[in-house]
């Protein structure tokens, strides 16, 4: 049989070979055999899907003032005396449906939290690669800059940055740019941790043979850092990013609770908790309870998933 005939009879590589290899790997096996990880992932998936489909699932658009009726204000949950359809979890003092507000608020909280983590990861990886690979004065300057950021409390930096951006923008544009302002405020205070992790790993990888061989071949430093070193330091970054997602969501909720986050017209979970806290002792307990439970559930699920991922990717525990 000729070589050409053998080549034509060789089966094609399956299109989903990588997916099958992943599902048959140790990481997927450990995931599906860890109940806390599976439940956390399902909870996060359900919250994310319902938040994305909020316009289809919610009986009211809480951001549309024409759909808010003061005669429907402070209605209790539907299973309590005085509850009405379709206000499943009751309404607040403005007649806003709590269930709809939670769905829309979860979308804002998840979006800002995820975006701030992505921005901080990009900044941290860039700074860490440059600092660890080049070293010298650049390394010293970047690390001292990171120490300066860490020396100031995170919330104080976020509040300061948010206040500065708000003062620079016209009043008519503040609400529209609030998500971007919050994302920037949280990311500025979160990149240092990623930079230190990437810097330490880069200093180790830079002394290995494959990096030395790339230098001998006179490859550009940028290509060495991105194509050779970066893939080998992403494991620790991924674990840290997963754990910090919950902190980013909590930071956004804290800023909104303090009044420097999302406005009342576009409430996130933190804004809903701040609004409900003002009327908690007047008997409208549902206004603050259900958004607080949603926020707690998101953070708990993210932390449990991050803990599993940290243990699963730790070579000492394999």
Automatic annotation (TrEMBL):
Residue span, ABC transmembrane type-1 domain: 106-306
Subcellular location(s) per record: Cell membrane
Which PROSITE patterns does its entry note?
ABC_TM1
| Gene3D superfamilies associated with the record | MetI-like (1.10.3720.10)
Which positions, given as ranges, span the membrane? 37-57, 108-133, 145-165, 177-198, 229-251, 285-309
Q: Please name the PANTHER family in this protein's record.
A: ABC TRANSPORTER PERMEASE PROTEIN (PTHR43386:SF26), OLIGOPEPTIDE TRANSPORT SYSTEM PERMEASE PROTEIN APPC (PTHR43386)
Q: What is this protein called?
A: Peptide/nickel transport system permease protein
**Organism listed in the record:** Mesorhizobium robiniae
